[in-house]
Amino acid sequence: MKKFRGLTLILLIAVLVLSACQPAATAEPTEAPQPTEAMAEPTEVMAEPTEAMAEPTEAMAEPTEAMEEPTAEPAMADVTCEEPVQVGLITDLTGGLAVYGVMMERGFRIGMEYGADEALGDNTYQYGDCEIDVLVRDDQGDAETTATLARELIEVDQVDMLVGTVSSGSTATLQEIAAENQIPLIVAPAAANDITGVNFNEYTFRTSRENYQDFINLCQYLTTEYSTFVQIAPDYSFGYGGAQSARDACTFYGGEFVADDIFAPLDTTDFTSYMEQILDSGADAWIVTWAGAGFVPMFQTAADLGILDNLGMGASYFDNATMVAVFSPVADKMVGQTSGILYHYTAPDNAINDYLVEKVMEEAGVPPDLFDADGMNAALMILAALNETGGDVSSDALLQAMEGLEFEGPKGTISIRPEDHVAIQDMYIVTLTDLSAPDFAMFDLVTTTRPEPPCLLPEDMQDRCGDLAIGSLSGE
C-alpha cells in the first residue's frame, strides 16, 4: 500500500469547551442548540454497558495499534507543479446542514495547514514546488446550488479536484458532474452507502465513513448484550439505507429482528404510535437511525412510555452540543450507556489529532467536533495523492495514486479501498459518562474498531469487488 507521512508538530493540549453546532464557530458556546436537519447524515448508536465491555469481546474488532507518530521536522515535499493546483471545496456553511459543513471546512483548512510546507494566506498553500489554491463554496445544503457551483468551479475556475459535500443527496449530484468532467471527487462528510455503492464511479473517493461502518461498529457491541431487536428510521433514502445496514450487521453478528422495520416521516413530532409499536414488539433492544429535530420528542416519548427502562437502546452518538440537547432531559436513563461513534476528539491518541484539537481551540474556543476529522483527512488525502504523483494533477495520475492510498490522519491510518474507494478507518465504542462534563469530555473510550463493510457496487461493476463480500456481510 502507498504511504504518506504528513508534517508533524507534537503539541501538548488541554481539551476545552466545544459547541460546533452553529453556522459559524463561536468562542462562548453557552447553550446547546436544538438539533436540526443537520443531523440528516450522522445518526449513530448506544446501549447498556456491562462488565463485559471492560475488555473487547471476541465478537468485536481488536483495538488498532497506536499510530506511528510522524517525525517532528519532515523534509520539504518533493513535488513539482507546472501551474497552481486548484481544489474546489463545496460544503454547507449557511443552510440547514451548516452545523456539519462548518466542521468540515474548518478541518480541511487545518489539514492543509498541517500537511503543507507553508500557508500563504487566502486559502493558498505551498507544498514542495506546488502552490495549492482552495476555492471554498457554500451550497447551503441545496442540490441545485451544489450542481451550479460544481459546474462553475470546473468550467470557469478549472479546478483539478473537488471536495464535498454534507448532504448525501447533493453529493450524488456532485458525483455525476465530477464523472462527466473527469474530475476526481473526495466525499466528506456525507455518509450514505449509495455514494460508494449504486452511485459509484471511478472518480468518486471518500474520507467519510458509510452507514455500514456505523452499524458494523455498533452491532458488534449490541449483540454481546442483546439478542432481539426492533428499529425505527426516517421514511426516506437515508433511513432505508441505515435500516438495511443495521439489519444486516446485527443479524450477521447473531441478533434477530422480531418485527418489521418502522419508518416514520422525518418531520414527525408525535412519536406515540411508533413508540407503542416498539414497546409491543417484545424486542430486547431498539435501534434508532434518525435525523433532525425529531430526536428530542422521540426520546422524551420513549422515556414517558417506559421504553428507556425496559429496552436496551441503539442510536450512535453524534455531535457534542446536540448530544447535550437531546439527552439532557433523559440523562438519568442515558448516562452509563455504551455506543458507537465515528469520531470524538478524546478517542484517538496521536500527534495529528493533538494538532487538530489545539488549532480548533485557538480558532473557535472549542475542541473539534464530529466531522472536523473528515475534513482534515480530505486535505491530507490530497497532499498524499500529490506526493504519489510528484505533482501531476491529471485525472489518470490522481486516480491511480488514490486507489489503495494510505495516509495518516487524526483518526490514525486511512486506507482507500481500491475496489470501491471506501475509506477504511478507525471507529470507536464509548460509554457516556457525564453530559455536563466540561469541554464536552463526556465519554470513556471502551475500544477502537476498524469496520470492513461489504462491497455494494451495482451488478454491472461487481467484478471490481474481488474477494470482498458482495451486497451484505455474508455475501449472500
Helix/strand-derived class?
alpha/beta
Q: For the record, give the distance between the C-alpha atoms at the N and C termini, rounded to a whole number.
A: 29 Å
Shape: globular
Just name the CATH architecture of the largest domain: 3-Layer(aba) Sandwich
In the predicted model, the low-confidence regions spanning at least 5 consecutive residues are 1-74
- Under CATH, the homologous superfamily of the largest domain reads Response regulator
Largest sheet: 7 strands, mixed
Which percent band covers the strand fraction?
Answer: 15-25%
Q: Give me the Rg, rounded.
A: 21 Å
Q: What's the total helix number?
A: 13
- CATH top level of the largest domain is Alpha Beta
Entry keywords:
single chain, alpha/beta, Rossmann fold, seven-stranded mixed beta sheet, five-stranded parallel beta sheet, 32% helix, 17% strand, globular
Structural features, described:
The strands form four sheets. This protein has a seven-stranded mixed sheet with strand order 3-4-5-2-6-7-8, with helices on both faces. Strands 9, 10, 11, 12 and 13 form a five-stranded parallel sheet that branches. The protein has a four-stranded antiparallel sheet with strand order 1-14-18-19, with helices on one face. The protein folds into two domains: 37-66 and 212-347 and 427-449, Response regulator (Rossmann fold, 3-Layer(aba) Sandwich), CATH 3.40.50; 85-210 and 349-425, Rossmann fold, CATH 3.40.50.2300. A hairpin with a 2-residue loop joins strand 15 (406-409) and strand 16. Helix 1 packs across helix 11, helix 2 (143-155) runs parallel beside helix 3 and helix 12 packs across helix 13 (395-402). Residues 1-74 have low confidence and may be disordered. The chain has 13 helices and 19 strands. The chain has 476 residues and is of the alpha/beta class.
